[in-house]
Structure formats: structure tokens, C-alpha cells
Write a structure and sequence with these properties.
Layout: H1 10-45, E1 57-58, E2 64-65, H2 77-83, H3 88-96, H4 109-116, H5 124-130, E3 134-136, H6 143-152, H7 157-163, E4 169-171, H8 184-197, H9 200-216
Parallel strand pairs: 3-4
Antiparallel strand pairs: 1-2
């Protein structure tokens, strides 16, 4: 996918990568007991793997990558939504609602809790450590999501190109400012705004706001 690069200093890029490595290592250690507890809860609650088997996301410069998340839905949830006629109405709502579905019937009991408090996102620390993601950045979008949403909101095309010039983040500006309550056109503009404004201090500001967003569960679906 095409992208528009917003250049930042080499100093910022180096510090950001160093922060990603240090924070992800520390958080992996801190969250390791929670990691095990969530994994066990998922296995006891429903059939299927611990990690979600989801389609690839679009990363930096439009390059696809596999994003790790705890499974919060029934097994094969993405295929069921798109291919099972029983879920056709939900799929229409899903696309109309900026690729978010309120009261999603595919979410498990444990899934509701871990999604509300963003615990399903913890495995993304592996993506951060490997360099596919950053601790702070735009949302990691699905390819079909970007294609369909740009058709619905054609004025977002430049913002999408700006967003694709950087690594997606485990947290970000819109995630700590309402999260799933924000429609695609506003969300992608907030992501593009972050790319333009990003700095070490701005990243730290978002990191400091993230724990409250996780605890409160504001805007989570």
C-alpha cells in the first residue's frame, strides 16, 4: 500500500527503538504471571488456541505482519463472520461500524473481560521486541479494513498514507482518548496527527495515560 513519509530526526528514531526494547522487556517480565493466568483462563473457558488466529495486519510502509493477541473469541471467529450466512447481518454491522462490532456474539466469557481491560493485547510485546510494532503508534489495521473504509470515507486517503509510514503501536493517541467509540474517519485522522506530532515526550505522555485506559476499560468493545 502507498505511504507518505513524515521524517523525524535519527535521534528520535534511535531513542524510540531503545524505549521499545527496554519497555517491552520490562513489561514481559512484569506481565508474565498475568500472561499465564490469561492463557489458562482461555483454555478452560472455550475450545481453541490461546493466541488468536487472525488475518495479517498492515505494518510500516504497508508491509503485512502477524500481530499476536490472546484469543477473545470463539475459534475461527474471523472466517465465521465473513463466510457463515448466519452472521451476515453482523458482518454488515461490522463494516458499517468502522470494523467494530458492539455486542459481538463471537466473544467468549473470558474474552469480554480481557478485551475490556486490554489484556488481549499483551502478546503484542513480542511484536514490539521483534521490531514489527512500536509501544506507541497508530492502530494496526487489516488490509480489507483500510480498503473498505477509504471507500466509505474517501477524504481519509492521505491520512492513511501518513499512518502507514510508521510502525503500528500497542497503544496510541486514539486508544487513550476513547478507543472503539471513535469512528474510522476520526480515528485515522488522530493516528495521522500522532505521526506528525510524534516525539519522545509525546510518546511518554501516551504511555503514562495507557494504564488508566486499561483499568477503566473506557470505549472497549
Amino acid at each position: 500500500m502507498p505511504y507518505i513519509s513524515i521524517k523525524k530526526s535519527i535521534f528520535y528514531e534511535a531513542i524510540k527503538r531503545l524505549m521499545d526494547i527496554i519497555f517491552s522487556l520490562i513489561l514481559i517480565i512484569i506481565f508474565s504471571p498475568i500472561f499465564l493466568a490469561v492463557a489458562l483462563s482461555i483454555k478452560l473457558d472455550s475450545k481453541g488456541p490461546v493466541l488468536a488466529d487472525t488475518p495479517e495486519r498492515v505494518g510500516k510502509n504497508g508491509k503485512p505482519f502477524k500481530m499476536y493477541k490472546f484469543r477473545s473469541m470463539i475459534e475461527n471467529a474471523h472466517e465465521i463472520l465473513r463466510e457463515n450466512p448466519k452472521y451476515s447481518d453482523f458482518y454488515a454491522q461490522y463494516k458499517k461500524g468502522s470494523y467494530k462490532l458492539k455486542d459481538d456474539p463471537r466473544i467468549t466469557k473470558v474474552g469480554h473481560f480481557i478485551r475490556k481491560h486490554s489484556l488481549d493485547e499483551i502478546p503484542q510485546l513480542i511484536n514490539i521486541l521483534s521490531g514489527e510494532m512500536s509501544l506507541v503508534g497508530p492502530r494496526a489495521y487489516y488490509p480489507d479494513e483500510l480498503r473498505e473504509q477509504q471507500k466509505q470515507y474517501p477524504k481519509t486517503q492521505d491520512s492513511v498514507k501518513i499512518v502507514l509510514s510508521v510502525k503500528p503501536g500497542a497503544t496510541g493517541y486514539w486508544q487513550v482518548s476513547g478507543r472503539s467509540e471513535i469512528n474510522f474517519d476520526k480515528r485515522i485522522e488522530m493516528d495521522a496527527q500522532y505521526v506528525r506530532k510524534r516525539s519522545v515526550l509525546y510518546d511518554l505522555f501516551i504511555i503514562l495515560k495507557t494504564p488508566w485506559a486499561m483499568v477503566s476499560g473506557k470505549g472497549a468493545l
